[in-house]
Design a protein that fits this description.
Keywords: Membrane, Transmembrane, Transmembrane helix. It is built from 4 helices and no strands. By secondary structure, it is mostly helical. It has one domain. The chain is globular, with a radius of gyration of 16 Å.
Length: 106
């Protein structure tokens, strides 16, 4: 549903589902990435922290784009997607690095 919202916003569709699906994407993508990074927390705490982090990521992207006078809906979606993917990539690298160091030490 989130991916569909991002696609609808990027192609500038006139669908009435574009708004709700895009909003879901803008909250779910960073929240999922942050939740993956906070693996050690209790489930409720991880959910609350992930949603709060998603709101922070969206606000920082919006503030940054407004500060440099480059505001656009498409650019915001691309920026949020890139930040979420970077967070997930860093989590994956950290987990893979942790596995290799554990295997090497007795």
């Amino acid at each position: 549903m989130g991916g569909l919202g991002a696609v609808l916003a990027l192609v500038d569709s006139a669908s009435p589902l574009r708004g709700p699906f895009t909003l879901f994407f803008l909250l779910a993508a960073p929240a999922a990435a942050i939740a993956a990074a906070l693996r050690g927390l209790e489930p409720f705490g991880r959910g609350v922290a992930a949603v709060a982090g998603a709101v922070v990521v969206n606000m920082l992207v919006a503030q940054g784009m407004l500060a440099v006078h480059r505001w656009s809906g498409r650019g915001g979606i691309v920026a949020v997607t890139a930040i979420s993917a970077l967070i997930l990539l860093l989590v994956l690298v950290r987990r893979l690095r942790g596995r290799t160091t554990r295997r090497r030490t007795p």
